[in-house]
Amino acid sequence: MYSEQRQFIRAVLAGDRCLSPATVYDALSARVAESVGFRLGILAGSVCAATVLAAPDVVVQTLTEFADQVRRVMRNSRLSLIVDADTGYGNALNVMRTVEELEHAGVSLLTIEDLIMPQRFNAAHEFELVSSEEMTGKLRAALAARRDPALVIAARTAALKGEDTARTVARAKAYAATGVDAIFITGLKKLADFDAVRAAVKLPIIVGTAPEIKREDLAARGVRVLLQGHPPVRAVVKALHEVYTHLYEGGSPADLKSKLASPEDMDLLTRNAEYSEWMREYLR
């Protein structure tokens, strides 16, 4: 059902361009992203927590809540959707359930991370990682649970946030040996660290936000997907705050015209013409 979207992300990973996905968080935001030309989208765990629960990025949302939001996005868009499946919501068996749910929901690429989450009581530091052995077990379980071979499964490592380059490379090599389709690196600050991983691992590499490194430098080294954080969510929050403040303080809705989507744009995004046709066809 989602073969076209999954083949697109595979083509991106095998191609020669470095793309950044549009952050989406519901059906409407996905439609807006598509309307400006995006074919690649991302729904992060942090974004789901913020927009569905108004909660921070501490993995308090459930797999069911996350998968339901993915379904809402995919029922209403044709984006190739990358999702941050966090740590797979538990151990290797939970990871298998996570893959089943998210594959069925329509994702094109999902990532499983090696952090320990939720954070343990009295943890030594914020970025505590599972052992490499446990993580490789989770990745093998994820691959075993996959039904559509076109679904991309990426091993995400936060090792650079708490370990040295050598141990990061060792983890990347171990994860790649499981048969995953890509390696996702977060916490990248130095090109030397990337080059060390790249020399050891021949899989496509996805990079989280790396503001200290130029996109062209990463693209030249084979990075095909580069995240940019999630500014659309923050932009929406700011816009809502400004509009609510204006109205609360007695301002007129007419004064907001320049800040609002036109009725015509809203009709397009909500498929008003299609619904009107269906009403004429089936309700009369």
The largest beta-sheet arranges its strands as 1-2-3-4-5-6-7-8
Report the C-alpha radius of gyration, rounded: 20 Å
DSSP strand count: 8
Q: Tell me the major beta sheet.
A: 8 strands, parallel
Could you give the distance between the termini? 32 Å
* H/E element sequence: HEHEHHEHEHEHEHEHEHHH
Number of helices: 12
- Class from secondary-structure proportions: alpha/beta
Outline the low-pLDDT stretches.
Answer: none
Write down the oligomeric state.
Answer: single chain
Strand fraction band?
A: 5-15%
Q: Which fold name fills CATH's third level, the topology of the largest domain? A: TIM Barrel
Global mean pLDDT: 95
Number of domains: 2
What proportion of the residues is helical, as a percent range? 40-55%
| The CATH C-level class name of the largest domain | Alpha Beta
CATH superfamily grouping of the largest domain = Phosphoenolpyruvate-binding domains
CATH architecture of the largest domain: Alpha-Beta Barrel
Would you mind describing this structure in some detail?
The protein is α/β, with parallel strands linked by helices and 284 residues long. The chain is built from twelve helices and eight strands. It folds into two domains: 3-229, TIM Barrel (Alpha-Beta Barrel); 236-282, no CATH class. It has helices at 3-14, 27-35, 45-53, 63-75, 92-105, 132-145, 165-176, 191-200, 215-220, 231-248, 263-269, 272-282, and strands spanning 22-23, 40-43, 80-84, 109-113, 152-157, 182-185, 205-207, 223-226. An eight-stranded parallel β-sheet has the order 1-2-3-4-5-6-7-8. The longest helix has 18 residues, at 231-248. The mean pLDDT is 95.
